[in-house]
């Protein structure tokens, strides 16, 4: 069969085209093909006879344009047209085939198989038959995956605190000064909200002094407020981890930081508290009991 024995006829819709093919004789086992472009992808229509079979095969193979960025998703439909030009699904319709997975660069492959005698009797006009082809290609923009990787607002606020950027309030605790953001503190703690935005005197002060708290405890509480986690062990100044959790529990309760309270209670109740910590285990509200020393 010569290349002129098949042709792609476009329609007003760029996704839809007609594949017009001359019906070959049973002795002719060669194939013919023609191609077009849909949504930046090359669509190749192929017609061939199946050897030792009374059937014919029409196939659509889709290849992406390597110059375009993104992830194309392909779906296609094929149906034979009868002699009046109307769809004849009873003659055969296109179905996906897994052949594409074995051919490099192929992102979609669909085939239509029909009996040659039925095609000749119902679809052939002047020795030609027509397959109506519809190819939908949806590109997933690479920016959509980048959006999922962008830092969250919480991450950005934590980075601002780490860099001490645009802070608007400071605290004097245990001889050290700590800067923070009023809005973040008020969002995370009802006590800070009342102090910084209520009628209390602290709401008018640029620097606030906090008594009865160690600097390392306040630093760890601020870290939790911004990061929702405790700082690395190497950054904790208190030598005893259990003592650190004791102080943090008192601070979290004082400022209503419920998540931090829960962490401290779990650690103190379930990590072998002994009486030398001086902590009242009853505040845990759990089943863990202090261990007695022999």
TrEMBL record:
Position of the signal peptide: none
Domain BTB: 167-230
UniProt-listed GO biological process terms: protein ubiquitination
InterPro entries: BPM1-6, BTB/POZ_dom, SKP1/BTB/POZ_sf
Coiled coil: none
Cited PANTHER family: BTB/POZ AND MATH DOMAIN-CONTAINING PROTEIN 1, OS09G0338200 PROTEIN
Protein name: BTB domain-containing protein
Taxonomic path: Eukaryota, Viridiplantae, Streptophyta, Embryophyta, Tracheophyta
């Amino acid at each position: 069969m010569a290349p002129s024995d098949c042709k792609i006829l476009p329609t007003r819709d760029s996704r839809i085209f007609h594949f017009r093919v001359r019906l070959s004789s049973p002795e002719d086992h060669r194939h013919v093909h023609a191609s077009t472009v849909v949504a930046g992808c090359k669509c190749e229509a192929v017609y061939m006879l199946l050897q030792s079979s009374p059937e014919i095969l029409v196939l659509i193979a889709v290849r992406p344009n390597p110059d375009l960025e993104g992830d194309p998703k392909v779906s296609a439909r094929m149906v034979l047209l009868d002699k009046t030009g109307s769809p004849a699904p009873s003659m055969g319709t296109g179905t996906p085939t897994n052949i594409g997975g074995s051919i490099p660069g192929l992102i979609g492959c669909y085939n239509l198989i029909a009996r040659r005698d039925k095609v000749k009797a119902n679809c052939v006009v002047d020795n030609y038959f027509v397959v109506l082809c519809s190819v939908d290609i949806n590109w997933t923009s690479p920016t959509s995956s980048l959006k999922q990787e962008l830092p969250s607002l919480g991450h950005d606020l934590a980075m601002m605190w780490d860099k001490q950027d645009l802070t608007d309030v400071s605290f004097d605790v245990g001889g050290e000064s700590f800067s923070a953001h009023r809005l973040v503190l008020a969002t995370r703690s009802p006590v800070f909200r009342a102090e910084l935005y209520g009628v209390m005197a602290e709401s008018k002060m640029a620097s606030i002094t906090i008594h009865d708290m160690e600097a390392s405890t306040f630093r760890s509480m601020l870290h939790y407020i911004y990061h929702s986690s405790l700082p690395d062990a190497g950054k904790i100044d208190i030598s005893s981890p259990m003592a650190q959790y004791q102080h943090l529990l008192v601070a979290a309760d004082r400022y209503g930081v419920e998540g931090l309270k829960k962490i401290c209670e779990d650690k103190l109740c379930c990590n072998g508290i002994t009486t030398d910590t001086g902590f009242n285990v009853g505040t845990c509200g759990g089943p863990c009991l202090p261990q007695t020393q022999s």
